[in-house]
Amino acid sequence: MSMLIVVLMGVLSIVDGLSTYTATPGGKERNESHVSALFVLGDSSVDCGDNTLFYPLLHGRLSLYPCNGSDATLLPQLLAEKMGFTSIRPFYGQNGSLEEVLGGLNFGSTQATIMNQGRYSHQSLNQQLRQVSETMQLLQLQLSEDTALQFTKSSIFFLSFGKEDYIELFLHNSSGSNQTFQQGAQYFATILVNQMANAARYLYNANARKITCLGILPLGCTPRLAWQLNSTTSAGDYNANGCVEHVNDMIFEYNRLLDEQIDKLNTEFTDAQIVFCDVYNGMMEIINRPRLYGFEDVKRACCGLGLNGAMIGCISVDMACDQASTHVWWDLFNPTQTVNKILADAAWSGQPIADLCRPISIHELASMKV
């Protein structure tokens, strides 16, 4: 009973318009923050495999260690720290208690896709949305309706999807520079973006008012795709940094459409704020001017085997290079923690990379009252 009272007091402080709690267990105050919790949905860009049942048996083309340590190396967790949250618990790592939900949850799953089709459809965007809905229902059952409503409205819902959909598309169409594939990819981007817009509407109807959508990173620069498409891509399709241009063009188009769709949603939902974070242009800024940001290698994976570490992923952290901080890429498809930290700083404050998130920064979103 005493624990329930403590939890409810924490929730009531949110309703009163204060920072979520006075201080976290780690002692960090959440200054100027009006965020009750962070709820994360996504793919390998938000999860290291901890939130995937039987991941070692299902990892397929992925590394067994797609992160150099834990989810704490990834963008949403780094942003959570800036908001004052010490960690965001994986959905499958919690037992459904109210206290755990109040701390925020990571619904993300390494192999999740926007599309429901495929081997891992049970980890799709729609499945994660259903898990969010069940979680919000738990809040309504255990808190008063008004308290649960305010808690949801002042939480940030962070979405990062599409990466796995495109990796599957490119790996299954290695000769994908032909015109038919290019046209199909444009249609594919429209379908994916429409699904993301529907997800934002779903969350809005579930009373979410602070939503962040990440774009897709430049997959044409990832060690695996740059290596795998080498035999089917003309030399002129590679830029000076070894990135496959036609792949990046398709990713850029998806991000452009998503950015446009979010503008429309912000016009439609005037009492909400949806933020688009352009990690594509953020990473291209780093890749094009690596030394400015302290990097020495923009092609080779720090942890992997074969040419540029692109043939076999990180099956043991003992394989990793000595100084991951000098590499842009950690493994086949994932950036290093150092890259993620730069992107997190830029998303939070607009520095050192301006206009990464728009129309406002994540710090402004966190500070916004609803």
Structure explained in plain terms:
- The chain is 42% helix and 9% strand.
- The chain has 370 residues and is α/β, with parallel strands linked by helices.
- The chain has a single domain (33-365), classed as Rossmann fold (3-Layer(aba) Sandwich).
- A seven-stranded mixed β-sheet has the order 2-3-1-4-5-6-9.
- Strand 2 (89-90), helix 4 (98-102) and strand 3 (105-106) form a beta-alpha-beta unit.
- Helix 3 packs across helix 12 (337-349), helix 5 runs antiparallel to helix 6 and helix 8 (179-205) runs parallel beside helix 10.
- The longest helix is centred in the middle third of the chain and has 27 residues, at 179-205.
- It is globular, with a radius of gyration of 20 Å.
- Belongs to the 'GDSL' lipolytic enzyme family.
- Keywords: Hydrolase, Lipid degradation, Lipid metabolism, Signal.
- One of its GO terms (molecular function) is hydrolase activity, acting on ester bonds.
